[in-house]
Amino acid sequence: MKNQQTNQPSYHTDDERVHGFFQDLAAALNRITGKNIQPDQNGQGLPKPVPRQGKQQIEK
Fold first, then answer.
1. For 16, phi and psi rounded to 5 degrees?
2. How many CA atoms lie within 13 A of 53 on its CB side?
3. Range 39-46, long-range pairs (CB < 8 A, 24+ positions)
4. What confidence score (pLDDT) does residue 20 get?
5. Residues with Cβ < 8 Å from 30, sequence gap 6 or more?
6. What local confidence, expressed as pLDDT, does residue 3 receive?
7. What is the pLDDT along the chain (60 residues), one digit of tens a residue?
8. Contact, 27 vs 20, CB < 8 A?
9. In this predicted structure, what is the pLDDT of residue 32?
10. Which of 5, 13, 32, 39 has its CA 20 to 30 A from that of 46?
């Protein structure tokens, strides 16, 4: 299905809605937690994983 105004596939508008959703979600989390979460270029305001130090011990 195509968007009638821009003649682009409709998933472009879905991407914009999802991006807006992530911005709204980040704003709500900021209010709840008091932390300032900024969405990155992908629209995901998630913290980057911290690399662990040393080797992991596997328990058997």
1. -65, -40
2. 0
3. 43/18, 43/19
4. 83
5. 36, 37
6. 53
7. 555 666 666 666 677 777 788 888 888 888 888 776 665 555 555 566 666 676 666 555
8. no
9. 83
10. 13
- Calpha distance 58→46 (Å, rounded): 28
Structure tokens at 46: 């998630």
Q: b/e map of 23-60 (b: 16 or more CB within 10 Å)?
A: eeebeeeeeeeeeeeeeeeebebeeeeeeeeeeeeeee
Name the amino acid, one letter, at 48: K
Cα first-last separation, the chain: 53
